[in-house]
Amino acid sequence: MLQIEEIKIGKHFMFNSKPFLQEFLQPLLAFGITHLTIIIMRKNKGQEDSIEFMSSDPRIFEPYISEKYYRHLQGGEPDKFIECNVLTKAYTQDNHITGEFSSIQKNQFNIGHGIDLIRKFKDRCEIYYFASTPDNGKIENFYLNNLNLLDSFILNFRENATELLQKSYQNRIYCRSGDDTTVVSSPEWQERYLKHQQLFKPQFTKRELDCAYLVKQGFKTKEIASKLGLSPRTVEKYLIHLRDKTHSKNINQLIINLKNL
User: Which CATH number does the domain housing residue 36 bear?
Assistant: First the structure.
């Protein structure tokens, strides 16, 4: 397994992942999402931790390697991350290292206004970085209101990209766990992720809040309709909206998720 210092720019698998990621990215182009980078950090039993890179624009890895940004942005140990969603501006606005790399993406590769969806598993941590162009600031509101769409994309990717993921795993890179210069998994950055995560609480309309209050009390659809002076079909529509916004598969999970907000 290679160390990242040994990677030859343009030769490693990460530089050949473009056509595969662009194919998967196609459905999101209609929404203004033009870029996808995936980073997978693994805990390897009996071996060093490893990291994998894939991107719809692998050119971003050139300065990452040549300018040695990996010393600061490689990610650290997988189990130190928390599962959350965070706009990249949350960790680029007041840190010169992440700010510099963000500027490179903007000025050289026309990439901006991104969001990280960090997903944790028993043996690994996956980071899905979705982004648009620097002039598309409104995309951040789209992320906020369509996290379920991005989660569906991730599930579809995992189910249908098994060959790509296998190649990525075969070309995994030695991860320098415990490096003091790693910043993005440090406690202060994790605290920032959690603080920024508050921005991603779902936004509800007044009627949705009315339905949410009553469904938490255990009222059924017809009972809610009667109390609010609405038809059962309209209440069902609001409940569907609530399930979508809270990523709930059924009414029982909806009640649990509403109580946790």
Answer: 3.30.450
Tens-binned pLDDT, residue by residue, of the chain (261 aa): 677 778 888 889 999 999 999 999 999 999 999 999 999 988 877 777 888 999 999 999 999 888 888 776 655 677 777 778 888 887 776 677 788 889 999 999 999 999 999 888 888 889 999 999 999 999 988 887 788 889 889 999 999 999 999 999 999 988 655 444 445 555 665 566 555 555 556 678 899 999 999 999 999 999 999 999 999 999 999 999 898 777 677 888 888 878 766
**What DSSP designation does 213 have?**
H
DSSP class per residue in 18-64: HHHHHHHHHHHHTTT--EEEEEEEE--TTS--EEEEEESSGGGHHHH
- What's the residue count for the chain? 261
* Total number of domains constituting the chain: 2
The two tokens of residue 1 are 């397994």
CATH number at residue 243: 1.10.10.10
- Helix 206-216 and helix 232-246, axial crossing angle in degrees, nearest 10: 90
The domain of 223 spans 206-260
Non-local CB neighbours of 236 within 8 Å, separated by 6+ positions? 221
